[in-house]
Amino acid sequence: MTDIAPDATTVRPVSTSSSRTESSLRVIRQYGAFNGLGLWTLYKREVGRFLKVWMQTVFAPVVTTLLFMTVFKLAFGDRGRLTGDFDGLNYNDFLAPGLVVMAILQNAFQNTSSSLVQAKFNSTHVDFLMPPLSPLELTAGFLGGAITRGIMVAVISAIGIEISGLADMSVVHIWPILWFGTTSAIVLGALGAMGGIWADKFDHLSAVTNFIIVPLTFLSGTFYDIKVMQEPFLTMAHLDPFFYMIDGFRYGFLGVANSSIVTGMWVTGGLSVVLTAGVWWMFRAGYKLKA
What we know:
The protein is mostly helical and 291 residues long. Helices cover 74% and strands 0% of the residues.
């Protein structure tokens, strides 16, 4: 008995250690150059965050868009006619695509900006800084959530306008709708992310919204043909990037535009790349996110 016991005790620790090592190796997750699971998790977090309060983030913007259309419909009826590039078109058909783009712009901006400001305010931004996510994956995750919310609100608003008979939302060219709708969401989502990282409190973010986003949106031809403007305001309107987003998106529904569609594609595409790179740099540098 005394000769066998030592052998048994020496074998068991080796076997236990070996099994523990094998067990620990089995649970280690290996990540390659691209963390697809982490990106998908961050994207689901962003989408789930705004869907959890869908009455505020989806339903309310749709109602606002429909109220705008209703007010203008009651004010002008079918009497509103346009001149110039849009000669002969009904004003309500002209207005509807502009309001849909405005919904994309505002909701894409609000999604990323509110998410990041709230995370910083509640000191929960470490939840997405600590996991093995690269700056590019963080950028894609947050912008993906902004694009989803902006496009979702736009689609529901367009369907509501069409069903209610407030305007004709017939599509003439699908590709400008897809291009300018997506790039508009990317640009404003990136601006919102940069604003959310930069802002130290909600007042800073409100200043960006009230003094930059809203004026550029309202003065970009959403409610009127910019060619009714006199110089130098006409030239200033052509310097407003929001004008190209709205004009190009409207072209998809009406088949008519105030400016060159190719120019609009270059402007919106270039802004998308530049601002996305800006968000990537902020995450990479840890600007106002890391001590």
